Amino acid sequence: MEPIDIFKALSNETRLNILLWLKDPEKHFPKQGAHLPKEVSYKGGVCVGDIQEKAKVSQSTVSHYLNMMQKAGLLESVRYGQWTYYRRNEEAISQFAEYFKTEI
Amino acid sequence: MEPIDIFKALSNETRLNILLWLKDPEKHFPKQGAHLPKEVSYKGGVCVGDIQEKAKVSQSTVSHYLNMMQKAGLLESVRYGQWTYYRRNEEAISQFAEYFKTEI
DNA sequence: TTGACATATATAGAAATATCGATATAATAG
DNA sequence: CTATTATATCGATATTTCTATATATGTCAA
C-alpha cells in the first residue's frame, strides 16, 4: 500500500466522487444491473459504462481512472462476460484510514 | 476543509515527509532552535531554513510547499522576528483522519 | 541608514498528469 | 463468421504540477 498513490488517486474530484458513489451503488446507479441476475450485480460492483455515464467523462478517461484507483488499492474489479464490475476494496480503505489516523 | 486540497498536499513525497518529520521535531531537526529561547522554539515549530536543509529542495520550493500545506489546513505558522516557524495543526489533522474514516 | 540574513513571491521551463478520439481486444448475439 | 457492445489501450494535445532562478520584502544588528 503506497500512501502517495492513494493520495494521488483521491486528489481528483471525479475520482473521489466515484469512490463515494460506490459506497451506495443502489442510490447512485439506480438503473444498473440490467445485464445480470440480481444476486450478482451489486455484490460484484458497478460496471464501467454506468460509472462513465454518471461521471460525465469519456470512456477512456473513466477506464484510466478506475485502473489507477485499483492499482492504488482503493477498488477491486470482477469481470462477468463482457462487463467489468468495480467495487470498493473496503478492507484496504479502512486499513488506510487506520494508517492515516495513527501514522500521519 | 477541502479534502481535495489535503489529498493534493499529501500526494508529494517531500510534503508528506515534512508532515511526518514535524510529528517529532526534536528527533528530525536536532540542531534547530538556535535562534530562540528554548521554551519558545519547539512549541512554535520548526523554521523554514531547517526544514529546507532536511528536505533538500530549494528555499523557494520549501516555502511554496509549506504555504500550500498551511492553506490546506495541515500546518500552522508563527512568526518570531525574521523566522517563520511551522508546526502541525493537530486538530485539523485528526479531524481529517476522522472524516476519512467515516466519510470515505 | 546600511548591510546581512530569512522568508516570500514572481516567473518560467521541464516534467507529470489529464483527457480526448481512435483503435484494439474481448465477449456475445445472430 | 460477422456484427454489436463493453472495456482497455494508444497517441496526441491540453493542463497542471514541480522546482529552480531571480527578485522583493521584512527583520535585525551595527
UniProtKB/TrEMBL annotation, chains A, B:
CDD domains: HTH_ARSR
Coiled-coil segments: none
Signal peptide boundaries: none
Keywords from the UniProt entry: DNA-binding, Transcription, Transcription regulation
Cross-referenced SUPFAM superfamilies: Winged helix' DNA-binding domain
Pfam families found in the cross-reference section: HTH_5
Keyword Repeat in record: no
Stored SMART domains: HTH_ARSR
Record InterPro entries: ArsR-like_HTH (IPR011991), HTH_ArsR_DNA-bd_dom (IPR001845), HTH_MetalResp_TranReg (IPR051081), WH-like_DNA-bd_sf (IPR036388), WH_DNA-bd_sf (IPR036390)
Keyword Transmembrane: no
Record-annotated HTH arsR-type domain positions: 1-104
PANTHER family referenced in this protein's UniProt entry, alphabetically: TRANSCRIPTIONAL REGULATOR, ARSR FAMILY, TRANSCRIPTIONAL REPRESSOR SDPR
Designated name of the protein: Winged helix-turn-helix transcriptional regulator
Annotated organism of origin: Cytobacillus stercorigallinarum
Lineage: Bacteria, Bacillati, Bacillota, Bacilli, Bacillales
